[in-house]
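Note to self: the last two entries modelled the partners one at a time, which told us nothing about the interface. This time every component goes in together.
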Amino acid sequence: MTDNQNNELSHEQIRQDIANLRRKKSSQMSLVWSRFRKNKLALAGFVIVSIVVFIAVFADFLTSYDPLETDPFNRLKAPSAEHWLGTDELGRDVLTRLFHGSRIALEIGVLIILFEGVIGIFLGVISGYFGGWIDAIIMRIVDILRSFPVIILAMAIAGIMGQGVWNVVIALGIVGWTTYTRMVRSKILTIKEADYVEAAYSIGESTASVIARYVLPNALPTAIIMICIMMPTALIASATLSFLGVGVQPPTPAWGAMIAAGRGYLLKAPWISTSAGLAIMITVLGFNFIGDGLRDALDPTTKRN
Amino acid sequence: MSKKKNYWVNRIIRTIITAFGVTLIAFLILHLTKGDPVRIMLGPYASEENIAALRAKYKLDEPLYIQYLTWVGNVLKGDLGTSIRYNRSVNELIAERIGPTLILTGGGLVIALGFGVLLGISAALRRNSFMDYFSTFQAMFWLSIPTFWLGILLLYIFGLQLRWLPIAGMTGFASVILPILTIGLQQEAWFARPMRAEMLEVLSQDYIKTAKAKGLKYSVVVWKHAFRNALIPIITMLALRLPWIIGGSVVVEVVFSWGGMGSLLVNSVLSRDFPVVQAILLIIAAAVVIANLLADIIYSVVDPRIRTAG
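The predicted structure of the combined assembly is written out below.
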């Protein structure tokens, strides 16, 4: 055997070791999943969120009313057999609007999370991996943006840019990404020191390939949990913008806007605000249960007992 | 010692950079509008003279950096500009409204901290008891309810149905209760959980065991030794939560028609009164930056281990 062949063989060996190390990580994921399944609250959250997703997808077929069709003869009708959750100030069926509202809530929530998640995770990886002045600049921008209360800066931005789904997403995402960047950055800092990264470098892999093949996959669980944990914030924040009058606006059946509209009829028709409020609460609670379960599953030391 | 000095030099530089960035954002936000900010502010029926006057005032025909320097220069001189909607100085408007806002944020903070610390400690002292589960569950509940909906709910129950408390406006002590409760209850969850964790951590330390072994009374161990040390990290938590408490108070001011800075901000955004929006954003962000610095200073004074270690 020549020296060259020898080298190649040992490279192959190292490659396999690294692959094994990564496989070990994925078995860790299944461990996390089995812990998650044992958590009753997390499972309850999973069921709640599944139901909400189901309603959002099939909203058109679940009731026989149109969410936008007004009915002047049936304004502010109390819950009945025809209108299970009553009608609103324009005679629209509250349950139908609630169902369609879930679609808008999830749609905006997912868009916000994708928007801020992609930016935040990207900048977090760069900041953590390269350090130095890139890190310094990114972290200062994070500091600056976090000096503003999220809802206040988002309200100002959305208010000035005008109403609309994308403006809400951008307004909330502009501050939101900083949370991901911080979390991912600190995760990357620990991964960077790991043996398998050193091993990958020692066999001559490029920085780009190390990031793509070892750093990113290992930071992925953190990122996924971040996304589950950030969903409640995104839902609440976008509903709040609707409520303040700078988010998704009437006649679109957004939950926040429904609460705002029902506010004027609290005594006469409390079902308008109450149903929308409960819908937000239950959905957010579902996501919070999932997020909590995931956190416990990944870090069992924080769990009770 | 020099490490410590280095840390503080660094920290001050970071604060200055952050403060600079904050003014930049508050300034640039005006330029997010599509079109001429002055025309948008003055509305479609503004006379050309008024438009020209306002453009000259904000030096809008000059390059962006001149506009910025003019604005920051005025702010540093203590002039926050003139409200277009009220045609009054922004300083005056804010001076009138900062008091009511401080009452809400201050009161909310006291409730959040008080309830949070008490619940956290009682949960930690009786692990896995009813109290512990109650504390966790109620925290989850508050975290899942939007501030504005909690406010409306409290308003509906205690104001409209039971008629115990006023539903809107600033009419003496009774009118403060619901807004403060809304902010406080919601934020309490953020203190209860860390407090529980800190307390558990401290209680497992050697010096607590020593104190117990010395034969000290349980209450002395808990309150004099454990509680004090567990409280230290909560200071940082306080600074971290401040932006959220201020944000919450803006929403609560709208729900309860409270005449503070928050409702002024929302109205100014909706009516495109940009000088007011810029000024309030700046004041709030400055408060957060200062609070963060203060929290760091207090933290290092209370717990000198922190800064010398690293």
